[in-house]
């Protein structure tokens, strides 16, 4: 839930000189998306992809890059956009619908009573309940309408921050995977921007002139989960000048887990079941 007001340098429309950098940035993001796609098998032939578009920079970049990929990819797939309407009075999905129409992408709006939840359960980590609610309506819409994948706009910074939040506050080692099949097997979530940096996506959406649509939530910027995320963001920003490869290294680490050198007893149970060889191979 980014706050566009926090980006003063991007508050004005880009100049002609700034727009000259767009093709290079697009190429760089498209390459990252292509590499992630090849590595994690995100998009397959005949996929019907439902893209979550909140009206934030990441979701615009995702929709635009996927739509461009669709025209040149060797596999055939379709893209449709969906916006979850959280019910806040200030939220207006019309600008999202207008841009989708301009892009020629079918757009759906599905309601979720997040406003009521935020008003009645502010003490129960509302952001966690909110994301569960959003996921629930997305899963059910995708399943009912025959979509094979749900694409979300989480990026590398989201993956790294989630890893650190879970590690530092939640006592577990996990992040948002690039590809996740739901417990009942009915939905597959993909994160094609998982190797792209937030600052690049922010710049891309700005250069493309996409409207940033605020979700209208009164907790934006002040919930406990957001304050944890802010803390972790500050930690990364503090470390980055002295460890310039920090994000690349953390991305590498998330894909290079030495299972046998962790403390999870469930891994020991796997070994006892005769999976030593598999674990050995995994490191
Ligand atoms: S800030 Fe509001 S809209 Fe954003 S995740 Fe939290 S409850 Fe949901």
The tally of structural domains comes to: 2
The total of beta strands comes to 6
Residue share in β-strands: 5-15%
CATH architecture of the largest domain: 3-Layer(aba) Sandwich
Task: List cofactors, ions and other ligands.
Answer: iron/sulfur cluster
- Largest beta-sheet details: 6 strands, mixed
The percent range for helix content is: 40-55%
Question: Which residues sit in consecutive blocks of at least 5 with pLDDT less than 50?
Answer: 1-8
Q: CATH fold name of the largest domain, please?
A: Rossmann fold
Structure classification: alpha/beta
Major beta sheet, strand line-up: 3-2-1-4-6-5
- Per CATH, the class of the largest domain reads Alpha Beta
The N- and C-terminal alpha carbons lie at a distance of: 36 Å
Question: Could you explain the architecture of this structure?
Answer:
The chain has 2 domains: 4-239, HUPs (Rossmann fold, 3-Layer(aba) Sandwich); 248-283, no CATH class. It is of the alpha/beta class and 283 residues long. The protein has helices at 16-19, 22-40, 57-72, 94-103, 114-120, 126-144, 156-169, 198-208, 224-239, 246-254, 265-282, and strands at 47-52, 77-85, 107-111, 149-151, 179-181, 188-190. 27% of the residues are buried. Strand 1 (47-52), helix 3 and strand 2 (77-85) form a beta-alpha-beta unit. The structure holds iron/sulfur cluster (SF4). Iron/sulfur cluster (SF4) binds next to helix 5 and helix 6.
